[in-house]
Amino acid sequence: MRVVLAEDLFLLRDGLVRMLEAYDFEIAAAVESGPELTRALAELRPDVAIVDVRLPPSHTDEGLQCALAARRERPGMPVLILSQHVEQLYARELLADGDGGIGYLLKDRVLDAEQFVDSVRRVAAGGTAMDPQVIQQLLARRSVKRPLAELTPREVEVMELMAQGRSNSAIAAQLVVTERAVAKHTSNIFSKLGLEVSDDDNRRVLAVLTYLEGR
Amino acid sequence: MDTQDRTGTDPGSPGTGPDTPGTSVVGRLTAPWRSRDGARGGSRGAELAARARPAVVAALRGLVLAVCSLAGSLALLVLSVVSIVLIPVAGIGLLTTPAVLGLVRLHANQRRLLAVQWSGVRIPVPYRPLPDRIRGGYAGRGLRMLADPATWRDLAWLVTDMTGGALLALLAMALVEQGLFGILLALGLWIPVVRAADGWWFAFIPITGWGTAALAGLLGCCFLALSPFASPLLVEGHFRLGRLLLDRDREAELSRRIDRLTATRHDAVDTAAAELRRIERDLHDGAQARLVAMGMDLGTVEALIEKDPARARALLWQARKSSAEALTELRDLVRGIHPPVLAERGLGDAVRALALRLPVPVDVDIQLEALPARPSEPLEAAAYFAVSEVLTNAVKHARAERIRVDIHHAGGALRISVTDDGVGGAVIGAGSGLSGVERRLGTFDGILAVSSPAGGPTMVTMEIPCALS
């Protein structure tokens, strides 16, 4: 799997390259600025891009903006955003097109290599990987509001994990229930949120979007 | 002012600057416009009328001002002098002085009002506030007013107003009046006038027959041609002369400003020092200690890895946990110093992001996008933390269920209002968070106003002067 990596801090970039190579990723390019990232994404067309929010030369949200621009050029291109802090505002902007293949994680998550690599793979496969902190903020705020008020506590737990982008089997393992039970919960959640029945994987993305939009 | 406001909102008329007088400018700007679009042949008359209007308006104003200056100021000056002179004489003056000085102030304030409305000349009101209860009652009030330097400046103004001021106002009127009179003379009016007055001078022309009358008519036309430009200027000159004396005492103003700057500088330095101490302490007790612990754990792991792999693994897990906790602490610390979204996106999005984190729905309306640039960074930070503090108060103390934040930039100031539907009863002072906000804004000459009746709703308004670079 070919990866383009954008991170301006040398130590972190170097560490990420080594970690990803250890998990058999191919690093197509490891760049340190916004313009370089834009060029690399256009020329190399990687399977997934891992991008720091704040990049030179502007040292603002240049990485995020480059990634969003690249996704407008090539809809659905998998992008995993790494940030020193998580902001719902940024998560909303990333998820706005509803195409999936989006991740938004705190930089701390690289401390747990296995989980981080799992997130990268999920994003590359068109899924989502939202930082638990974003999801928790969301749920903490919305738990009293509709339509979440209609969810049972167990369904809220399932949704929290689903919103992070976990698969049914991963959720089942974490909550120590059967996969069938998880499937039942998820379909309940979808119907309570008014998402139509379909085989589309993106319904999970839509569920996250519903929370983000449904104020 | 009224007319000016309407032109501002009317999309069809060209905008007027804040300093331009209302009616006359509207006439001058809109009329030629309309005449160009309208009837092609008969537009001359309309154009002439548009030209004449400011002159006529200025002449009428000159007349009003001349009456005010000559009659009003003269009468008030005489009354004031007599009244003040009579104070030592059995205290008779003590009874009249407060009333007379009150009238003088009314008179001066009326002129201040006209100055803004007619010529856009701002003359600040300098009087020291009078306390509700004064020792010595009514008479004490007069003495108190006499102790105010502004009163003496008022009296000096009365003198200049009834001389120079009146002259300028009369000239504004005379240009139009004499112009018309000159033309009438040339049309034949000179015959009865000369006969009645036994010789007549029009300006510098002695009128003796049709020839000199025609010259007078020519001069009258010159006066009239000059008046649309000169008369408004003369009226403005009248007000500017008034401002020379009526404006507040500049020295007193400067010393007040120095006092205020000294106070806000002390506040700013104290706050910055306290902030630095807090950061130092937080780093020392938090992230730094955790990193040291992590290093020790890793050192122990090095020693144990062969002998006791199970304990080594436990220590590694602990080291990783320490590093994660150190990161969290550093992140919170950074957010307290300068929030990342603020650095990345500016005030607007930082407040939006803040609103998303609150457990209460917050409507955010921000109108900064039309601006060419962001406010300076320290000012942005001050505004952000002020909003943050007020929002926290609304959630914590006011138990609000809905909050509204409005941020916009107008008239060289950043205006922020935070309204909630909570229980109200918020006050500035007595160690409340709002005093901190007030101090923080004070460094930037900003002000804070709180309206919070018991039972709510609470509205906190902040205004910070800010020119956008």
What does this structure look like?
Chain A has 215 residues and is of the alpha/beta class. Chain A has helices at residues 10-22, 34-44, 62-73, 88-95, 113-124, 132-142, 153-164, 168-175, 179-192, 203-213; strands at residues 2-6, 26-31, 48-52, 79-83, 102-106, 128-130. Chain A has 10 helices and 6 strands, in the order βαβαβαβαβαβααααα. In chain A, strands 2-1-3-4-5-6 form a 6-stranded parallel beta sheet, sandwiched between helices. In chain A, helix 2 (34-44) runs parallel beside helix 3 (62-73), helix 6 packs antiparallel against helix 7 and helix 7 (153-164) packs across helix 9 (179-192). The longest helix of chain A is centred in the C-terminal third of the chain and has 14 residues, at 179-192. Chain B has helices at residues 2-9, 22-37, 43-85, 92-119, 137-146, 149-197, 210-246, 250-307, 309-337, 340-345, 347-357, 377-396, 433-442, and strands at residues 200-202, 205-207, 362-367, 403-410, 413-420, 447-451, 458-465. In chain B, the strands form 2 sheets. Chain B has a 5-stranded mixed beta sheet with strand order 3-4-5-7-6, with helices on one face. A two-stranded antiparallel sheet of chain B has the order 1-2. Chain B is elongated and about 135 Å long. At the A-B interface, helix 6 of A face helix 9, helix 10 and helix 11 of B.
